[in-house]
Amino acid sequence: MPDTAPWLVVGLGNPGSEYARHRHNVGFMVADLLADRTGLRFSRHRRVMAEVAEGRLRVGGPRLVLVKPLTYMNLSGGPVAGLAQFYKVPVDQIIAVHDELDVPWTQLRLKQGGGEGGHNGLRSMSSSLGSKDYVRVRFGIGRPPGRQNPADFVLSDFSSVERKELDFFVDRAADAVEMVIDRGLEPAQNQYHGA
């Protein structure tokens, strides 16, 4: 079987320990779990401001490059576009994993293309890639309570109640990424949109 381009799985988040458990960093959490599952280690890329982990989804499986941009969220696109060029990855083999205010907590929504819904990381990716046709794994964090500013909400830690479910939810999001790679977007949508 010829070796085709790898899948580029981008966990969106902000670098630094002070952001590690914020809602805005669920993409990093999913990327870290995928690296753990596949036995891959993140290291600083030599040309691009990102941490990458390269390998295969499983022995003999599809090639995989996990990415955590080291720029802040609103500049994520530059490293992603640089890595897509470096690894010669077509845009439809790029998966962005990100927090989503417009999806209720504990739900996942998967789609290809479309708008960015005010998400600065997606806006930066679309601009830098010159395309919106990458796959998104939208990790529902729900809307902020009361009149809390959405920007403050995404840059805050999960509540104690949410933290009890967080690991399970991160696990499901990682499963969804693997299913998109293995079986395609539509089967993954059918599996995860009903849950």
UniProtKB/TrEMBL annotation:
Organism: Dactylosporangium roseum
Subunit structure: Monomer.
Protein name, entry field: Peptidyl-tRNA hydrolase
A GO MF label: peptidyl-tRNA hydrolase activity
Positions contributing to tRNA binding: Y19, Y72, N74, N120
Reactions the enzyme catalyzes: an N-acyl-L-alpha-aminoacyl-tRNA + H2O = an N-acyl-L-amino acid + a tRNA + H(+)
UniProt cross-references to SUPFAM superfamilies, sorted A to Z: Peptidyl-tRNA hydrolase-like (SSF53178)
Top-level taxonomic group: Bacteria
Subcellular location: Cytoplasm
Matches recorded under InterPro entries: Pept_tRNA_hydro, Pept_tRNA_hydro_CS, Pept_tRNA_hydro_sf
Keyword tRNA-binding: yes
Keywords from the named record: Cytoplasm, Hydrolase, RNA-binding, tRNA-binding
NCBIfam families named in the record: pth (TIGR00447)
Marked site (Stabilizes the basic form of H active site to accept a proton) residue numbers: D99
Site-annotated residues for Discriminates between blocked and unblocked aminoacyl-tRNA: N14
Enzyme active site: H24 (proton acceptor)
EC number annotated for this UniProt entry: 3.1.1.29
